[in-house]
Write the structure tokens for this entry.
Amino acid sequence: MRLRKIFLLIMLLPFMLFAKEATITSFNKANQIYQKNNYNQALKIYLKLENNQYKNVALYYNIGNCYYKLEDFGRAVLYYEKALHISPKDKDILKNLKLAKIHLQDKEIEVASNPFALFFSWILNFFSVNAYIVISLILFACVGCFGLSFLLFESLRKQWIKQIFVLSLILFLIIGSLASVKIYKTEYQHYGIVTASVTSIMSGPGDNFSLLFTLHSGSKLRIIKKQKDWSLVSMKNGYAGWVKIKDFENI
Amino acid sequence: MKLKLIILFLIFGLSVASAEITLKASVDKTTVGLNQSVNYQVVVSGDQNTPSPTLPDLSEFAIQGRGHSTSVTIVNGSMSSSKIFNYVLIPKKEGEFTIPPSVINYKGQIYKTASFKIKVVPASQAPQQQRQQRQQQRQDPLDQFFNQPDQQTSFRAFAKVAVNRSYVYVGQQVPIVAKLFFSGNFGLRSVRTVWPTLDGFLSENVQTKDHRIRPEKPQVVGGVKYIVYPVEKKILFPLSSGRKTIADTKIEMGIASFFGGTRKMANSQPVTIHVLPLPEPQPQQFSGSVGQFSISATTKSTRYKQNEGVGLNVVVEGVGNIKAIEKPILPDLSNFKIYKSTSTSQIDTMSGYMKGKKTFEFILTPLKSGHLVIPPFKYIYFDPNKKRYVTLRSKSISLSIQAASKKEMQNIVYPVQDDVRLMNQDISYIKSQKKFKSYKSLYSSGVALLVLILESFIFLLGLGYYFYKRRMESDIEYARKSRAYVRYKKHYNKLLKKIEKSNGDLNHIIGEMEPLVLNYTADKLNIPGSHLILDKIISVLKNAGIKEEILDDLSSLIEDIQMLKYSSINNHKSETINDLMQRVNSTVSRIESSKGVKV
């Protein structure tokens, strides 16, 4: 199965390179159109690229900008969140997301959190998942290299090697656990943004259940599970209920 | 007077309701002491929009407290609502009084409540009741005063739109605040104001610094301590004169409870604002601004060259609708050519009021040299505090203009702005890229796992080598046994090379063949060097469980070697030697692969 994939990949490589060339040209073209304030047209091209499975910070960010300019703030929030998922420290994205959120209808009282939780989320968002993974792997390599060189080579059996080994071991344990949490949060916790202008959160997966509350576009949801056309979601403040799948989009 | 107030208080925008309504009234007691109170409650229930009743004449009583609450219930999408009006009545004198029925005229039909007879007794005659009342404190009228406690989450809440003045002029700013009075065991998680349509007003949202709502000082209303949240602020500018009503404003609350949370509405009472027209006659050049303003005109310097642009800033500053400030009335500027004029406004609504300044920037080029004067700019506004129109005049500015040559005149220098001001807030511009890379998660693509496994494998290998090395160093027997074959192979290969290079002289090679085999077996069986005798070796090998045939081969091999060694023939045929070497190798390999000698 894998082999076949690799074979296909090799076969398609020249075409892919060509496609990449075409992608960057159409991306640049969309940027030019955006510059002329023709946001609708630019958005169309960006979305076409996104449909081709391109996951790219700049692409998501630019789509967010288009939606912002077209005053679809819910979708703007969605795409800024998508971009933030890849690059959590990007100042432009954070700034635009903050501006887009001002226009949303649902204003939330922030859930009070203690300094420790704030610090934890700050450190968790310090790097992207990939960066955390790379750092952990490098630290793991350091642990192995310094540990083994201390054990195997007489000439390297020195205090400073031992100190580096201990230091990298501690760092690896910390960063490694952070990376695991981050992986869990990004790969196994799914979030969505309400894109319908208003949606009802019901007590069960169907219109015949009772209405719990309503949400407006741009509200962030955590997706717990899916069942046919409905999805069980929860919010930061603990509210939970079922919402129609077509009313929101995954980040 | 009081009745009027009550009625005024209760007039709501009546809207169309499709279903029937019911009207009920009740009192908590019919006999009351002079120093006690009666709770009179009127409940109107119906579907969505229930009207408010007209209250009877209650002039026999002093009304100590009044409250109004609305509860909206949504079951399977259909909505029903009820309005509850609570009055705490204190009798003024002894005797028997009647509370006449409350009335609603709804769709042409008249609904009436029952009337109640209240007997007021002297204060001393009612101690029993007082005790009873104390016992029934859970049903104390004050408890139900403002809102029925909700069945799931116990809380009371109501909304209030606070307006700090009710008589204003057209165009005068009216700051309003939608406040939520909340009291409950559970926390409030979210609030949202649903404003009515604010017809007849220009409304301006007030943005707080960080979108957080900070509670004000708690207030006690009707015996209940409420936390007061100023949920949303707005600034209104009436557009025309007359009586304006801000219909009931709703505040949607998200309330936390054990079971996740619920959403509830708190309603406010309508607020009336009387808008007065601006006094006539209005001055001809009246700007339309209402508030308190000041004007100033400045240039950066008073000395200019004729080819320099004069940057003139005219600032109208004050409290009022800053956005609507118009360009001040221009004086006679015939000595100048107006090159450019722009305006920027800075608005501050943080305090709840709209204040700020609008700066009009003119760039003038002097048409002649010498002493020139920029006369005062004029601005006329209406001051609602002084109740009159005020004309502002900026100071005139004297400039001395130095003549410039013809060549210099072709090249007009415009002033450069000195300080940078943020005029607008907008999103950051789009990003561009040279290379278009699609993001791939190292985790889900398996790269991370692969590298981790590879790294772990290498480290385990290294660790294994470390333990092997340690054993070799500490366990001599183990080291000897496990190295036996390697050492033999080394010697054997050396010997082969020697045979190749020997050019026929093979005597010393034969001498080395016997120790080659014996050393190997000694190493393999950990036999001390002094015991290197064939019989001894054979017996040890036998004990180790080596097959008889291998042992026979071994002894015959050694015998053959010895025979060759001690024979008188000097020139051995290389074939014989090679044959012997092969026999050595096969015997040793057979011993090596036997089970008995495995390490």
Notes: Chain B has a mean pLDDT of 77. Residues 447-474 of chain B form the longest helix (28 residues). The longest strand of chain B covers residues 61-75. The two ends of chain B are 114 Å apart (CA to CA).
